[in-house]
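CORE FACILITY INTAKE
Project code: CF-77B
Contact: R.S. (postdoc)
Sample description: multi-component assembly, two entities in total
Requested service: structural model of the whole complex
Turnaround: standard
Below are the sequence entries exactly as provided by the requester. Do not edit them.
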Amino acid sequence: MNGKPAKTKKSFSEFLRSGGVGSVVASLICILGGLLVGFIVLILLAAFAEDIPFSEAFKGIVTVLGGPFSGRDNVMFQMGNMIFQAVPLIMTGLSVAIAFKTGLFNIGAPGQYLMGAMGTLIVALSIPTTVVPSWIVWILALLTGVLLGALWGAIPGFFKAKFNVNEVIVCIMTNWIAANIVSWVFKSTGDKFINIAETKVNFIRKTVTNGVQTPTLGLDELFGGSYMDISIFIAIAIAIVLYIVINKTTFGYELKACGFNKNASKYAGMNEKRNIMLSMAIAGALAACGAALWCLNGKQDFKWDTYQTLPNDGFNGIPAALLASNNPVGVIFSAVFLKYISVGGSNLAAQTSFNEYVSPLIIAVIIYFSGASKLIKDLLAKKSTVVPPKIPDRVDYYKVAAEIAEDKAEAAAEAEAKAEKAVTEEAKTAAVEAAADPPDPPDVLPGEETEKGGTEE
Amino acid sequence: MIFLIQKTLIFTIPLLIVALAGMYAERSGIINIALDGIMIFGSFVGAVGAFLLRKVPFFVDHNQLTFILALLIAAISGALFSLLLSFSAIKLKADQTIGGTALNMLAPAIALFLIKVFFKMDRLEMTPAVNSAGQNKDFSFVILNNDMPDAGKVFFDKAYLSTFIAIAIYIILSIFIYKTKTGLRLRACGEHPQAAASVGIDVNKMRYLGTTISGALAGFGGYAYIATVANGTAEGTVAGMGFLALAIMIFGNWKPLGIALGALLFGFLKCVSVIYPQLSVTINGEKVFFLKNLNLPMYFYNLIPYVTVLIVLAFTSKRSRAPKAEGIPYDKGMR
């Protein structure tokens, strides 16, 4: 197909079909669908429940859509908290996304998150800041958490690579194992870490009691005394680095190749087992990093007796990644969006007869639709063009037909040139006949044949 | 000993039925990661159904009937809920893992949202009601009391009706998938749908059938779980039981017998982790609480089931064989 003329300009349909834009449009359609379903649920409830006036439904959807803007508190305060709470979600979203790129479903983010939180808290609270500068403790705590998360994430990778055990199962098992280990460790260390001073015995001491805390650079005051600190910038930087690693480096290419076809990448000389383990370890490190950044804020209460529940931020990394089509930079936006909706949900609970569970409902519907995003993308592309979409992975008959037509056209052109050179009439017709195959009608002109080839495409 | 077997059965039954649910979906070619969500949805609707039924004095008097009806409601609602999964997987050709994940999020959201709107609580507790004879009729304890000796005691004293129903369902469905024409067709659709279609089997219909049976079983298992293990409380969670059942299904190599073994093993270990302080052996007429005396924290016993499953999986994975076509949307043109 090297003889094909270069495309002069992109049509609108191609613009829609071109990866990024199509994904964004499809995601937006999914979001709209989710909001619509949420709205319908509110209307139905308002219609059937006696104690909820009908107007509440409209107020409700506006409140959810308003996110931090619909709160009674200071908008900046809610905004700051929203951005801060989005940080662990961005990290778990990245964790799920990078595993997806390697064809693995990392449902183990909650466990990795818990292990990261445990490592971070132990280091941040046990090294006295009177001896070691607090910023060194901060870095050590972060690194410990990340390392522990990486090791924990590597377990499913190891089982997958060595024993070919489904990673989903190992992830589920390691989640509950992590939840029990974390509870066990904090139970056995007792008042060393548990917040007894404030009689909040269900929680670990805040790291700020040891003077360890992420720098805020005045952002907390800017955002009305919220929890805001610079962790959001760290998360964004990590997302961008991850984007570059996945899309611009050999390592990233190997990971993706592994995800597309494990056997093919092995055949091409890549160490697919190493890649699976590395990918899961990185995923674990990212989830743990989210937990570490959350804990190191200094003002957060970590519930230690967690053996019966797994952290929500771990599971919500899955929708964050799916909504962003596993694009690391997209995860930043999807995670902030998810938190935006859930802040709207809390405001809804505070102001109307509905409750905060409407936001996970909306998010779930969005994810449901996003499963069909490929279909939506195809429909979008089909609607705005007449040319049927290409058939991938199979013998492309259009292409073959075009190639044959082109070859014919070339032969015909050559024949025409030859014919012009030929002196006698007989030689000319013979050459044309030889070119056109089958020659029907026999007196066809070479020019017509070319056009025919063109339309066939 | 009898006490231990009874308790093991209680933990085993939901796992057995839900793992069987997973098997039916996956054998027809649909990955059902939404088992947990369907359990939650089924248990929630079943609990609401039982709650409403108990407003009628007749149903308060006939506890066993209410229990069976609630199980039926849970199964039907589970089947309906699973249609969301099969629709997205078959009609929309969506990624089945994503569809399942969405259902897993949707079910607790719906359950908690409605419980809070209508009951003004975070959980729906099925409180005991007073029957016409003035007796307290406990909701969750639908028990057959019988004073049979030894072996009979295991099954008929303090046993739940759901146990017998579940065992019957298990036997019937195990025979169904292996010994009937429809069962064979269903399995064919999970292995090579194009080949199945070439001999005139409607692949999509079979896949709808598999997923719907799966949904009904998961809903049943969900209500059996909250009525027995969770003491009759619906609060938008089944403590990850659905995921455990999924693990047991893989552990059991997508076969009924393996699933039963896995569910028994896991149910036993899970049961020990809950009741270990009460376990005793009688030596010289004295009760010895041997596990309690070890002074290990309960977290240790909680860990054992999960670690055991991991170790066993590592050793048995070599002969593990998933249905070949599971997770792949059926495409007629791929023949």
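Facility notes:
- Residues 85-325 of chain A form one domain.
- Chain A touches chain B through 51 residues (CB under 8 Å).
Invoice: internal transfer
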